[in-house]
Amino acid sequence: MVEVKSPAEVEAMRAAGRVVAAALAAVRERAAVGVSLRELDAVARDVLAGAGARSTFQGYHPRFAPAPFPAVLCTSVNDAALHGIPTAYRLRDGDVLSVDFGAEVDGWAADAADTVIVGTARPEDARLVATTRAALAAGIAAARPGNRIGDVSAAIGAVARDAGYGVNTDFGGHGIGRRMHEEPSVPNDGRPGRGLPLQPGLVIAIEPWFLAGGRSGYRIDEDGWTLRSADGSRAAHQEHTVALTAGGPQVLTAG
Fold first, then answer.
1. CA dihedral in degrees (222, 227, 229, 233; nearest 10)?
2. Whether 118 contacts 97, CB under 8 Å
3. Is residue 2 part of a domain?
4. Of all helices (H) and strands (E), which one includes residue 186?
5. Strand partners, 102
6. 142-174, pLDDT tens digit by residue?
7. What's the structural domain count of the chain?
8. Which of 14, 47, 235, 238 gives 23 a disulfide partner, CB atoms 3.0 to 4.6 angstroms apart?
9. 242 within 8 A of 251, measured Cβ to Cβ
10. Residue 173 is part of which domain span?
11. Which CATH number fits the domain that encloses residue 16?
């Protein structure tokens, strides 16, 4: 069932959004050559503790995974696109690092992701990251009352196709509120004018992730979580929690 939030409930979700924004900012600042992924997870944990917030990731156990997620931060490096588990791996110059983080405050959740390049960026990686950010912006711009979910999906997919990147409708955006994953699903490609009508009070996480290798598909690591490009090409991932209002979309996880 799709839940429409009241203005007061949207306002309450901003507290979780601020925690998510603060954690991602702290992780971006700490991400550097030689820093381990577990150290980045510890940075995010410190932000949660300081805010009195709860992780929506740690202990999360969807049907596709063999075990609950063991960390508060997803850290996906290079050919890993989503759901990477923080390990002892130390970042290297030129790594493409996607970080995804969720928090709950007073029963309300927020979720966001960002991709950064550690140290020296290869031009092709900078283009991939910039294009994924542009797709997120296009999806947010389409998230307006009077449009439909398909308009958001189509806006994201068009950016990917124009750039020649692979876009997949698995593991896309989603509703969010009392739970991290709610209805409706927000795929990363679709047909405009189709799907659920958008109305004020709907809150969704818009979540494009692209593969540089085109439509090569993906595989899942033995850990049951980490999603990688099938051909080893690099990936990028962006996400914001967005509230629809009569005046347009409002990003609750903006810095």
1. -100
2. yes
3. no
4. strand 182-186
5. 111
6. 999 999 999 999 999 999 999 999 788 889 999
7. 1
8. 47
9. yes
10. 7-251
11. 3.90.230.10
